[in-house]
Amino acid sequence: MKTLLKQPYPILEFDENKKALIEPTHVLDKHESISSCLVVCFFLDAIDALIKRGDIYLKDTIKGENHVNIYQFKDKDVTLVPGLLGAPACAGFLDNFIAMGAKHIMFCGGGGVLRPDLAVGKFIVIDSAIRDEGLSYHYIKPSRDIKANPHVLKTITSYLDKEKIDYVKGKTWTTDAFYRETKDKILMRKQEGALLVEMEQSAMMAVSEFRGVEYGAIIYSGDDVSKETWDHRGWRQRYDVRLGLTELCVTLVETLKQSSK
What we know:
It is a single chain. Helix 1 packs across helix 6 and helix 2 (87-99) runs parallel beside helix 5 (201-211). It is built from six helices and ten strands. It has helices spanning 44-53, 87-99, 150-162, 183-191, 201-211, 239-259; strands spanning 37-41, 56-62, 68-73, 78-82, 104-113, 123-132, 145-147, 168-175, 194-198, 214-224. By secondary structure, the chain is of the alpha/beta class. A hairpin with a 5-residue loop joins strand 2 (56-62) and strand 3 (68-73).
């Protein structure tokens, strides 16, 4: 029998067929649609603060091995969901949310910096991502990195410039294995121009590109992995930065929708 193997490594066997055996639209059998504006937020403390303030309410829950709560803003046509750690979980659920109606998406989270001059809390607008994870290779053809949507990137940076909000724009390194961020790999990624490391962005960008929706991300500088020893820098306790970035992404996703009309 003739072999169907195309490449020496399975991760490189990209399939052009856009239809899969299981499509994300299956969630519509049990769940209502969501707003076209979606914020994916990695800060549970910020979500709790928005609940306590009465800004959002629990709209729905996708149940399974990983439960995901879906929140809706009371006075805005914006849906908010917590981000899940790692490309398969976070980007896999993003595919569900796109099927449920999300068209303009902003992501806010934190990441480990590869440059010590990036102080804790510095906003980094992601313009590209090194694809050192697996999920993206099933959505778009293999490549070293993936670029952000130019229109989305311009909309985000124009707003930040207008409001005089401090930020840097740059590349991230997306990896599946945070316990395998070795010294040599860190050095290689720094030489490629990566400012930080995280676990979702290249996959989130790939799913968004594949589905034809707008996606942008702002990640704030967290722990420092650029030195001989790991420096946590107390980044998870920056509650003011986390809530502020969440609120900023709500405004930005509304701006994205307006700019697309």
